[in-house]
Amino acid sequence: MSKPVVSVHPDTPTREIARLLVEKAISAVPVVDGLVIVVVAVVSLWFVVHSVFRVPLSGSMSLFLGGTVLYEISVAALGILLATFTGTMGQFGLLTVPCWLSSICCRAVRRRRKACRTG
Questions:
Q1: Which of 8, 17, 64, 108 has the smallest set of CB atoms within 10 Å of its CB?
Q2: pLDDT digits over 4-60, tens only?
Q3: What are the tens digits of pLDDT across the range 60-104?
Q4: What's the chain look like in SS3?
Q5: For the whole model, what pTM was predicted?
């Protein structure tokens, strides 16, 4: 049977995290704060792409935000799902390899189909 995933928030005191590590006999704990990722994605899009590179932004910013939040939730859910099946970081790393390989294969198939249509 797998153990539940233990995570903390950024405002969790260090002493509580240390107690949690000793109590659960684990060596690391993920810090969960999804809002930071969304804010950084929007700021980097606006500042780097629009201000530094002078690329005009077209389209809906709310659609971009919605897609970013949906992507963040789905990746976090996949990570938590994979982490519940494993007991160590090594096993987690090995379990993520098929996910990466399937992603690479899907990209290769899409590129080949696109080349066949245009070629």
A1: 108
A2: 778 888 788 888 888 888 898 887 777 777 777 778 788 888 888 888 888 888 888
A3: 888 988 888 888 888 888 877 877 878 787 888 888 888 788 888
A4: CCCCCCCECCCCCHHHHHHHHHHHCCCCCCECCHHHHHHHHHHHHHHHHHHHCCCCCCCCHHHHHHHHHHHHHHHHHHHHHHHHHCCCHHHHHHHHHHHHHHHHHHHHHHHHHHHHHHC
A5: 0.52
Q: What are the structural domain ranges in the chain?
A: 1-32, 34-85, 90-119
Given a contact cutoff of 8 angstroms between Cβ atoms, the answer to whether 29 and 7 are in contact is: yes
